[in-house]
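Hi V.,

Quick status before I head out on leave. The structure for the redesign project is tokenized and pasted below; the design run finished overnight.
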């Protein structure tokens, strides 16, 4: 199905009363922020950024060595960035899909699949161990074909991935619509390992655990820069500083403290809607009683899940890069993207016409050219980073944190020996070339979606170079 991008009047009416704030963060369970840093202190390990990567880094560092003095610095509040704004998919994939991993690291794919499943099991175990209430459920994810040419692609992935330890099930049109009823669905594949979660409550739960383990948290504390001393790093903030033996950078898409990272990561904005709760009749009209996450498989794709109280989260499609790597709160509200998403929603579920949206928001994704996280060290090994998750970091961030801690501690593990960990993505060009190249690539991907997946010469060149960009 080729989605129409022109919103109808009834679509715009569904957005009339929308609240421009992330649904997950609009929650009375949100914790009171910790005070900012206002003095000079010392620590064994400083972690910059209290999203999922930073939170997992702090938790694992304390579990590994309870005596380690860990300080966690956050410019805003815990989970305020991508960790509290995403679709709530917790995938086992470390490589942003099976096919992407196979294309890049075919010799390591079986190991990457194994480590990905262990990582997701570790997330589930921590949630149970520490009694984190975050609506975590292993309901699976279904990738949906909306065009005839996509059906065979899904069938091939389900068959090929089994050789590497995955258990992906092909669903016919009848099986697909028996699970979730949309006239646009032609087939699907189900990955039963994927979990759904309330991401903000997961972040807040990890925050609580970190504090219970003795992590010192300072919110409202912007890190201004790093300064190397002989045996330590000074982490500078507006009203205080931390002198630490090691520093872990978990800043995601926000301007990096290491200038070199700006060549490898571009901030891309993604937009999301949340509906009001469905009535019993509306729920019956679409089925969807299993709480599976769904996504279609175009280059510009939607992802969506249904919450325990019957709301539908609907996001994706647009992936907007703003010139000069802009990251700003005013970019989180983009009416044309919200209108387009709403129109696509009612094309997918026409039986829900009349349903209203309650929340609309945007968030910034740390996009890299290979789609997956990458790692590195700086300042003679005293600083390490994990960045580049490209929108699939809710699950992979725990693995990213483990690798970053391995690097800081100088440990040689099966994780650090992966070619995926040892390699870097291809850098993006600087401005003024970056914007036109990214925008032309997006245009080309849109044309491919409109032309049965056929890729133009530009996309074929990017494929040959191992580069990528999608929504």
């Amino acid at each position: 199905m080729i989605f129409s991008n022109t919103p109808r009047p009834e679509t715009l009416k569904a957005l009339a009363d929308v609240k421009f704030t992330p649904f997950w963060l609009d929650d009375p369970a949100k914790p009171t922020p910790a005070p900012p840093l206002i003095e000079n202190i010392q620590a064994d390990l400083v972690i910059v950024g209290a999203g999922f990567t930073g939170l997992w880094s702090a938790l694992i560092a304390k579990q590994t060595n309870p005596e380690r003095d860990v300080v966690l610095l956050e410019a805003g509040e815990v989970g305020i960035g991508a960790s509290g704004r995403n679709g709530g998919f917790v995938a086992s994939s470390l490589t942003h899909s099976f096919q992407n991993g196979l294309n890049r690291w075919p010799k390591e794919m079986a190991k990457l699949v194994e480590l990905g499943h262990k990582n997701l099991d570790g997330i589930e175990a921590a949630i149970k161990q520490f009694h984190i209430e975050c609506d975590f459920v292993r309901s699976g994810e279904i990738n949906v074909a909306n065009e005839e040419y996509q059906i065979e692609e899904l069938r091939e992935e389900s068959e090929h991935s089994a050789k590497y330890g995955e258990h992906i099930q092909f669903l016919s049109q009848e099986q697909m619509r028996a699970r979730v009823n949309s006239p646009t669905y032609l087939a699907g594949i189900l990955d039963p390992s994927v979990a759904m979660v309330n991401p903000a409550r997961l972040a807040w739960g990890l925050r609580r655990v970190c504090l219970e383990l003795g992590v010192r948290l300072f919110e409202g504390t912007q890190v201004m820069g790093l300064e190397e001393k002989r045996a330590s790093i000074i982490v500078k903030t507006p009203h205080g500083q931390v002198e630490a033996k090691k520093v872990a950078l978990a800043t995601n898409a926000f301007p990096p403290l290491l200038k070199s990272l700006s060549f490898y990561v571009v901030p891309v904005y993604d937009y999301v809607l949340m509906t009001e709760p469905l009535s019993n009749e509306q729920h019956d009209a679409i089925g969807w009683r299993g709480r599976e996450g769904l996504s279609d498989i175009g280059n510009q794709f939607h992802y969506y899940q249904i919450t325990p109280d019957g709301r539908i989260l609907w996001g994706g499609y647009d992936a907007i890069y703003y010139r000069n790597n802009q990251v700003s709160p005013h970019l989180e509200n983009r009416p044309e993207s919200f209108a387009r998403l709403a129109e696509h929603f009612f094309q997918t579920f026409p039986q829900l016409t009349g349903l209203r949206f309650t929340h609309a928001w945007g968030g910034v994704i740390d996009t890299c050219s290979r789609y997956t996280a990458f790692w590195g060290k700086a300042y003679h090994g005293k600083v390490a980073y994990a960045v580049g998750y490209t929108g699939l970091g809710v699950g992979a961030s725990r693995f990213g944190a483990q690798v970053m801690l391995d690097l800081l501690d100088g440990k040689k593990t099966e994780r650090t020996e992966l070619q995926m960990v040892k390699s870097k993505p291809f850098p993006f060009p600087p401005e003024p070339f970056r914007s036109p190249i990214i925008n032309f690539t997006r245009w080309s991907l849109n044309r491919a979606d409109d032309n049965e997946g056929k890729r133009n010469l530009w996309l074929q060149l990017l494929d040959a170079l191992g580069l990528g960009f999608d929504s």
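Above is the designed sequence. The domain at 9-23+138-192+267-367 is CATH 3.30.9.10 (D-Amino Acid Oxidase; Chain A, domain 2).

G. will cover questions while I'm gone.

Best,
W.
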